[in-house]
Design goal:
Blueprint (H helix, E strand, L loop, with lengths): L3 H12 L8 H9 L4 E4 L6 H11 L3 E5 L3 H13 L4 E4 L5 H12 L5 E4 L16 E6 L20 H6 L5 E5 L4 H10 L6 E4 L7 E7 L3 H9 L6 E5 L3 H13 L4 E4 L5 H12 L5 E4 L12 E6 L6 H8 L9 E7 L1 H13 L3 H16 L4 H8 L12 H4 L4 E3 L1 H13 L6 H9 L4 H5 L16 H13 L3 E4 L5 E4 L3 H6 L5 E3 L1 H10 L4
Parallel strand pairs: 1-6, 1-7, 2-4, 2-5, 3-4, 5-6, 8-13, 9-11, 9-12, 10-11, 12-13
Antiparallel strand pairs: 14-17, 15-16
The protein binds adenosine-5'-diphosphate (ADP) and zinc ion (ZN).
Adenosine-5'-diphosphate binds next to helix 3.
Length: 515
């Protein structure tokens, strides 16, 4: 196994970098140890090196499964330019082109082979004859219907581990909450994978949520000091991207729409013009941005509420990759929620989608530091409020919520983290219903300890406790409330908790348009 010195030399020689970014060398060492690995690292964090560098030093071929044909070509071109023998296989190639790659693989002339999951069968005939050293699965969240970008072709990838049990597998993604991580490992058959989870904190992104009324006017005023700054506006519908781009052009901005209904050449052109700063603004549906490497996107607006926090965080993450201050703005409207609920209803796993949408809504409604919510959603608990979100900059009135928090958290403890929010509140308030009696909750010490607080108010408080990271919602276990590691500070170490006064909450509610 190569030591750090050798790895660093190879990094410099082939990629021109002097040192590893956080986690890269640990991940590479873990591959050489023969482990399977799950890597969760934000976009731009440097995931590619984690398998490209081992590929150079391992004896055989590294197979890279990647969902996007356009990306594949860029990656391969980049590697070839660095003197690394790489190739890709996908459905856009002729049989001759594929045959030639086939031959090169057999002749051991290729170190890295990029392939779309749909094209894997291409390798069936030669799998037995080639030496495989590593399997990398990029954008691994695509395997999970719980994630935000499910691709049916990914679900067949589970057989790779069965077929090549001794070849280390590395799954990489920029977005996966806890449950999705578990699902990725289950589906890929890598139960013992080492997990490498990079910090998701992007301090340079300011976070702001506003009610979605008069959005166009708000956008113009938002843009008034951003005359030359590149930005993306995400919209829910194709039509909105087009009307919005049109309105922006009328105001003198260079803006284009981008969505799956636009033809391939035009899309490629928009993407290229945006990267080259010929277009300032792209109004896009979610189809835009996956894998585009543009470091100076200065702002991202969500014209509509996204359907979950994973997607939202990934999309705002496209701003400020160069580390410079960048702004994000989310519009929040009742109409969006209704629309998204309809989509969720039509999806295969309605309950999970609805629960995730609920969390998104709670984020938008929140009176706690928004960054805390985002990071705790991904399992990262920060102590301090961020100072760079609209709630931190304009805090609501707080009350000492320590006793309330202690009651709620100890109730969750006593019901063994087995119930969703509604039942927790029923127990706290001493409700006399069958759920409570069936499970004998009326005998718990916490039964009825807080019936002085109204049901709705409890709901708000518990959401706030979740937003602050003391509780989390297990989406895939019927939304049971679970304690997080910092809950014990409140229960046993006397940590004080501040909760927003409920009247502040009423105010945000009113500002959101009701039907
Ligand atoms: P990801 O796949 O996580 O989005 P990439 O692998 O594309 O990220 O890397 C993002 C950028 O960071 C690329 O331009 C890459 O060349 C650069 N990069 C990666 N590792 C390093 C490193 N150790 N030192 C400097 N730059 C790096
Ligand atoms: Zn904050």
């Amino acid at each position: 196994m190569p030591d750090l010195q050798q790895l660093t030399t190879t990094l410099k020689e082939y990629f021109g970098y002097d040192s590893f970014r956080p986690l890269q060398s640990e991940i590479i060492a873990s591959i050489f140890d023969g482990n399977d690995n799950l890597v969760i690292m934000p976009t731009g964090g440097g995931k590619s090196i984690c398998y490209q560098l081992p590929a150079l030093l391992l004896p055989g071929i590294t197979l890279v499964i990647s969902p996007l044909i356009a990306l594949m070509k860029d990656q391969v071109d980049g590697l070839l330019a660095n003197g690394i023998s790489a190739a890709f296989v996908n459905s856009s190639q002729t049989t001759e082109e594929q045959q030639s790659i086939y031959q090169k693989l057999l002749d051991k002339e290729i170190k890295l082979l990029y392939i779309a999951p749909e094209s894997l069968s291409f390798l069936d005939a030669i799998f037995a004859q080639i030496e495989l050293s590593l399997i990398a699965i990029d954008e691994a969240h695509c395997i999970s219907a719980w994630g935000h970008d499910f691709r049916p072709a990914y679900t067949q990838l589970g057989y790779l581990k069965n077929r090549f049990p001794k070849i280390p597998l590395i799954a990489l993604t920029a977005t996966a909450d806890k449950a999705t991580r578990q699902d990725i490992c289950d589906q890929l058959n890598i139960p013992n994978a080492t997990h490498h989870i990079a910090s998701f904190d992007r301090k340079n992104l300011s976070l702001e949520v506003r009610p979605g009324n008069k959005r166009i006017e708000q956008i113009f005023s938002f843009l008034s000091d951003k005359t030359n700054d590149s930005g993306i506006i995400y919209c829910l519908s194709r039509k909105t991207t087009e009307t919005l781009a049109e309105k922006l052009r009328e105001q003198g901005f260079t803006a284009e729409a981008y969505h799956a209904g636009i033809n391939h050449d035009q899309r490629a052109k928009v993407q290229e013009d945006f990267i080259n700063d010929t277009i300032q603004i792209v109004c896009a549906t979610i189809a835009f941005g996956m894998g585009i490497d543009k470091s100076n996107v200065r702002w991202v607006i969500h014209y509509n509420l996204p359907k979950n926090i994973e997607g939202y965080y990934q999309e705002i993450g496209r701003a400020g990759r160069d580390g410079l201050p960048s702004s994000t703005l989310l519009f929040h409207s009742y109409a969006d929620i209704v629309q998204l609920q309809k989509f969720a209803d039509m999806s295969g796993n309605k309950e999970v989608q609805l629960a995730k949408l609920d969390r998104m809504k709670q984020y938008a409604d929140s009176l706690s530091c928004r960054r805390k919510i985002l990071l705790s959603y991904f399992g990262e608990l920060i102590e301090q409020d961020c100072g760079n979100c609209d709630v931190c900059k304009n805090p609501p009135e707080f009350i000492d919520g320590t006793i309330i928090a202690q009651k709620a958290l100890s109730c969750v403890t006593r019901i063994k983290e087995e119930e969703p929010i509604g039942t927790v509140i029923d127990v706290l308030r001493g409700a006399q219903n069958t759920t409570v009696y069936d499970k004998g909750y009326q005998n718990l010490k916490t039964y009825g300890i807080a019936n002085d607080i109204a049901w709705r108010d409890w709901q708000q408080y518990i959401i706030q406790l979740t937003n602050q990271g003391y509780l989390e919602i297990a989406f895939h276990q019927n939304n049971k409330l679970k304690l997080t590691p910092i809950a014990k500070k409140v229960l046993f170490e006397g940590e004080k908790v501040s909760l927003a006064h409920l009247k502040a909450f009423e105010k945000t509610k009113e500002s959101i348009i009701k039907p």
